[in-house]
Amino acid sequence: MKIGVIGLGYVGLPIAVEFAKKYDVVGYDINASKIEKLKKNIDPSKEIPTEILKEAELVYTHNKEDLSDCNFFVIAVPTPVDKYKVPNLTALKSASQIVSEKLTKGDYVVFESTVFPGCTEEICIPILESSSGLTLKKDFKVGYSPERINPGDTLRTLTKIIKVVSGCDEESLEFIAETYSSIIEAGVFKASSIKVAEASKVIENTQRDLNIALMNELAIIFDKLDINTRDVLAAAGTKWNFLKFHPGLV
């Protein structure tokens, strides 16, 4: 199996490096400057140390033709929101288009980008089908495995976090689970559908954002009352079911 990872940011690069320990891997990114740095064992996102990159045996490229021989694609590109809080799917659509041009019968495509439930099936798969002339399930398989990278965290790294995986059918679910299990020490969790996996990522982010926002608001109130927020959290944290969130950004 030859794996193509599209998007070499803080999500895609760790995936490419880990898969390269087991398979032939091509790491693709449209940013030529980033590719040149990676070839010099420098990670612009500073997630992967230089010494690890030196040991990684994979191909870095910004030429999509280098993806031609791949048969398992992982798409890990940014999906930010605009000033109106609307998801910007430009990079995701572009990556889907690039993969569709290289897609052949028997291939697998796994999306890792954070998206709303239904995005993979309603937006990405139609692009893969229309541009390749192939049919989902009959000719190729698709799955979704939400990224759970915590940027800057050197303890809870990719291989140490349980990986949620899903597939367009039972066969794809099993194959994708087996593939990720080969690199994820913590194991995988098989979601019942692609939409379930997409939704799980959404509520993971939402729950954390809401709780941190609450702590920020409480910190403002405590400050006005001349109360030390950390002291309050230390006291409240002695209860078994108290969620230990702190003020901050993430």
Give an overview of the whole structure:
With about 250 residues, this protein is α/β, with parallel strands linked by helices. It folds into two domains: about 1-190, Rossmann fold (3-Layer(aba) Sandwich), CATH 3.40.50; about 195-250. The protein is about 40% helix and about 15% strand. It is built from eight helices and eight strands; from the N terminus they run βαβααββαβαββαβαα. The chain has an eight-stranded mixed β-sheet with strand order 3-2-1-4-5-6-7-8, with helices on both faces. Helix 4 packs parallel to helix 5 (about 120-130). The longest helix has about 30 residues, at about 195-225.
CATH second-level architecture of the largest domain? 3-Layer(aba) Sandwich
The average pLDDT value, as a whole number, equals 95
CATH class of the largest domain: Alpha Beta
What summary fits the major beta sheet? 8 strands, mixed
Taken from the alpha-carbon principal axes, the silhouette is globular
Can you count the beta strands?
8
Number of contiguous helices: 8
Strand order of the largest sheet: 3-2-1-4-5-6-7-8
Give helix and strand order, one letter per element, not per position. EHEHHEEHEHEEHEHH
Quote the distance from N terminus to C terminus. Answer: 37 Å
What is the rounded Rg? 20 Å
Domain module count: 2
Per CATH, the superfamily of the largest domain is NAD(P)-binding Rossmann-like Domain
The oligomerization state is single chain
Poorly predicted spans: none
CATH-derived topology of the largest domain: Rossmann fold
Structural class: alpha/beta
Approximately what portion of the residues adopt beta-strand conformation? Answer: 5-15%
How much helical structure, as a percent, in the residues?
A: 25-40%
